[in-house]
Amino acid sequence: QMKVYQMIYTSVENCLADPELGLQNIPGTRVYSCSQGLTRENISELMRFSTYRLPKNNTTTYPTGFADPSIAGLFPKTFRTLRLSDGKLCAIQSVYAGYDINGEAGNFFAHALVFDEYDNDFFPEQYFGSELFRTYLTKEEHNTKLVRYMPILENPQKPASLESEICEFIASHTKELTYLINQAVTMLTSDNIKNICISTSDEDITEKYLVALKWLLPRDVSQNTGISTYNVFLPSDKQDKIVFHGTIKDKNNITSDII
Predict the structure, then answer these.
(1) Is 53 exposed, middle or buried (CB count within 10 Å of its CB: 0-12, 13-18, 19+)?
(2) Residue 137 and residue 122: Cα distance in Å, rounded?
(3) Range with lowest mean pLDDT among 12-21, 54-63, 117-126, 200-209
(4) How far apart are CA 209 and CA 120, in angstroms?
(5) Where are the alpha helices (DSSP H) in 29-161?
(6) How many C-alpha atoms does 50 have within 13 Å on its Cβ side?
(7) Closest CA to 18 of 4, 46, 37
(8) Do residues 109 and 94 make contact, with C-beta atoms less than 8 angstroms apart?
């Protein structure tokens, strides 16, 4: 039975206190809560890959209140997958959340699912677009003084229509995906892992290319590799967890920064 641990990371007034995990209940951009069973190292890795930055050329306006729940729908979401150092697999959805607790822009909301005791044929992209991912905290959650641990999920349901949607996409993009798979296999079997970046004019198409790529690649070749559907930072030679990146034309941050 697969176990799924959770973590939420965003700007908060109050959060979970757990000295063993290095978590303190003080205001700021913090781990709001997580499931028992995650390690300090797990949390550190998840935080590193949870960030979200608006493109420097952004012109979309958004509400200025603290952590307004409507903001998430105004910008593309980022979906990232990776293998943690202890072998657990994870999927992180990050969304832009506007202004933080200090009234400064740049807040984000990340919800991570961490998979343990999974089958050999499992890959975290199977949870792309899952309704398990939250995009904001309620006012009640923000105001509560005592934050509790998040539950561990047991074999939660995958998005019902995802497989058929990806199969349809594969059928209608065979030529492009054949090219991408050849490039990916060549890259993954070479000693010097680099990155592949897929850029399209549409958030949905970029996401589907990346998820379809992981659907098609042989598990033994792709098991240690993750995807990031948006907000790519290249070159990413200081991390080798995520090698397949996506971006949207005219809405990207391709800079010399790393993730």
Answers:
(1) middle
(2) 29
(3) 54-63
(4) 23
(5) 40-48, 139-143
(6) 27
(7) 37
(8) yes
